[in-house]
Amino acid sequence: MSVVAVRPVTHLRVLRSEWVKxxxxxxxALTLLAAVAVMxxxxxxxxxxxxxxxxxxxxxxxxSFSPVDTTLAGxxxxxxxxxxxxxxxxxxxxxTGMVKATFGAVPRxxxxxxxxxxxxxxxxxxxxxxxxxxxxxxxxxxxxxxGTSLSGSGALRAMVGVAGFLALIGVFSVALGFVxxxxxxxxxxxxxxxxxxxxxxxxxxxxxxxxxxxxxxSNAGAAFFSVHPSADGLSAGTGLLVLVAWxxxxxxxxxxxxxxxxx
Amino acid sequence: MIEATxxxxxxxxxxxxxDLTFTVRPGIVTGFLGPNGAGKSTTMRMVLGLDxxxxxxxxVSGRPYRQHAEPLKVVGALLEARAVHTSRSAYHHLLAxxxxxxxxxxxxxxxxxxxxxxxxxxxxxGGFSLGMGQRLGIASALLADPETLILDEPVxxxxxxxxRWIRDLLKTLAADGHTVFVSSHLMSEMALTADHVIxxxxxxxxxxxxxxxxxxxxxxxxVAVRSPEAxxxxxxxxxxxxxVARTGPETLEVTxxxxxxxxxxARNLRIVLHGLTPHRASLEEAFMEMTRDEVEFHAxxxxxxxxxxSHALRSAS
Lengths: 263, 317
Prior knowledge:
The complex is a heterodimer.
Chain A: H1 11-23, H2 26-53, H3 59-64, H4 67-71, H5 75-96, H6 98-105, H7 110-143, H8 155-180, H9 183-200, H10 206-212, H11 217-225, H12 236-260
Chain B: E1 2-11, E2 14-24, E3 29-33, H1 40-47, E4 55-60, H2 71-74, E5 75-78, H3 90-100, H4 105-114, H5 130-142, E6 148-152, H6 160-175, E7 179-184, H7 187-193, E8 196-201, E9 204-210, H8 211-218, E10 221-226, H9 230-237, E11 243-248, E12 251-255, H10 259-268, E13 275-280, H11 283-291, H12 308-313
Parallel strand pairs in B: 3-7, 3-8, 5-6, 6-7
Antiparallel strand pairs in B: 1-2, 1-4, 8-9, 10-12, 10-13, 11-12
Helix pairs in contact in B: 3-4, 4-5, 8-11
């Protein structure tokens, strides 16, 4: 047997390994494609529909109308695809036993958490930025005279914001996967937080509602990337800060549990 | 070199590994033998840092596994449960592991060929048979040409040709100076592969000795005797160096005499024999004897009418 060249495990090498894993699962590619597709399809659909129905819109609807927000509304479904995939990237390893091989090769474990989170953030950001751009450009065409241009009214900022929001949701869901370790539990928690909590929160007494709802990840996110954010929401800066706090809290919890628990 | 010191693992009230201290040396194949549930897999997982010991320590090449800069170069492992993502191809599985240590793609191709998976390397690992899964596990263990190999039940699911391939591989690796630590619940398999055995039962160390010694201990011959005057015969046979056990009202088990010697003495005493069966204890029996009190789950055998043959098949108690 010839001598095998072996180098020390570094963050960069773990990142490369995670890249190999990410691109070698067909389900991963399909889910990412689905996220891009809903982002684009919904943007175009809302652009087309709004243009068709323009004469029927109430004055208050016209007042709060933003051609940018309308064509980026696909984020609402895209966040679910991105979130579910983020959870699956981790829980899929636990379910199949792959995690033993992963931690066997990287017994310090934490580099795996960082690499998975960083890689997934990068991939979702890049893909969702492109998807937002396509959704926006096509949507503006369909909006016709009610549309805007790339240089108009915070369009670029909104697109980068949506891509950044989805990347943060991606990191959050990867961390959640390491905390929960089961696909069912992870996906349920994610849907509860992104879909159920904002709706359920509406049932709270008004005095509490305003102290809870804006701080949920999806509402905090919407506050920072929307051109016309809802009036009772946080400011753009605070919204971003709150979302980052959610992500950091999830990452820290994951880091503690990953280092302490038996694999 | 693997060194475990007072290694203990508890899950709540259940102690899976109980104060194990042992050393696995390079250059030989060391068998890790014990019934199912004896704590073999848990011990191996602790060596790899996958499970943290409740107390005690275990090092590989002088350090806890976690502290090595090139872990795969130190230990290559095949664990009992399959550690492969079922939707990924064997090639990409190995490539992902290789990437963590900057191992070249050509080495991935080499190990795939080494274990004979070249025809299915691009297919999803979830569709692999048990034997192919084991081969993939061995390929990942060999990836970085590690100093120490830890294999948990490697022959499980392999066909006879695969089993022989594993045996030869382990022996070659040991001869090259590697440390080879391989678990099994089959004594017969260990007898063919291992130079040294560590026997555990219910998490406790039962024996730690060269295979040759274990075989010598096990190969004591016994003679099963059936006679209506078993009591008289027993008294007459029990002399220095002879061990006589009463196994029933008319049956004895004699250690230290051949069947011919027992027959001759019975004739001299004018005692009638109804059965005389020489019996060589197998390694499997020696192992079962050794771990009898340490097996977690006993199956009870329905009692059969006493016959000379049924006694002859039973080991001394």
